[in-house]
Amino acid sequence: MFRVKQTIFAMSASHRRFLWLKIWESLRRIPIIPHLTSYIRRSSILLFSLYFSFLFTGFIISISKPTAIVYRGNVKAPTFQPQLIGELCESESLGAEKRIFFIESSGEKCLRPRQACAIESAARTNPDMNIYVHMALYPAPGSPEMEGGYGLNAHCQMMDILTKQFPNVKIIREDLTRHFIGTPLEALLQSGALEKSKFAYQHLSDAVRIAMLHKSGGIYLDLDVITLRSLNCLRNTAGEVRSAEYKAGIENGVLIFDKGHELLNHYMRLIPQIYDPSSRECIGPHGLLKAAGEFCGFGICEGCDFGQLWICRNNWNITVLYTEAFYPIPFRNRIRFYEPTFPLSELDNLQTSYLVHVYGSGHGAQVSHSSLYGFLAQRFCPSVYTVSSQSRVFNF
Description:
396 residues, eight-stranded mixed β-sheet, two-stranded antiparallel sheet
């Protein structure tokens, strides 16, 4: 073989070409070779045809596909505002207390603009109800979460807007822990466990709202919601949430209960047992889900069928509403509130929402004029939003 290679390389270029032609002619006489070359040519033509067909089809689809309509803060905004989006309440509830209340547990003397927005939206959409804002005289026991970003500064001008423009808004400054007295939560306070909290504002608010609802009844709302409609037909109600972490759950950001509801009493007895100072949601959503699971018998929470009335112990009932009622945009997708523009189809998702829970609205995300959050604020808390957008000292 070595000698054959030497002989070939010793030939002139013309001789080598002549030799390769002879070899190729010999190979072509083998029956399989012509068929193979013909097959390769046909396959290549077919593959190229398919490739260019796919390219052309994709082009046709791309130019014919309708483009999503995006809101960019222009004057052609849809008329999505109070009195124009339709009410979901068919009739007023006979037993619910006609009061809405908020809890501000930080000990600040004034409100942040986004907190004031939550209050203004509730006052505008529920003018037949008194709106109570319970503000702590003292900072919550324990250590608060550290925050940074936009919209975190409190300003007393927000308080003036609310009290002067909305006669149904009442601001109450008090020691929030006084609501524990005479309830099972008194033991939690006396034990000093709250002083070890790493989420002081959240833990105090989570506990106080349950005590207040049990004592007085009514509608509790978080300070990071925007209320879109009347809430007067809701009674003994909480809202469903779904996420990748758990198939279904119950949030505690919106709670509507009659005075003395036994589920709340069961919940308060459970809180001292499950309290964990280092867990943010231990006595909030997780605690409510555990309490409702024990009291109403549907467990945690495989196979739960929410969005319906549950008849619980001793005929105490609770309605867990569908996700879109209070939490149409889940926590994991909260960035959708703050993106500079949003598709107007987002508003279609709110057609069956009583309110929108804007997770973390007070925790530093920037709100542009043309974002979904900015759009809703301009329509449902216009007084607060206008003052905030014109101010050089603070922003929304």
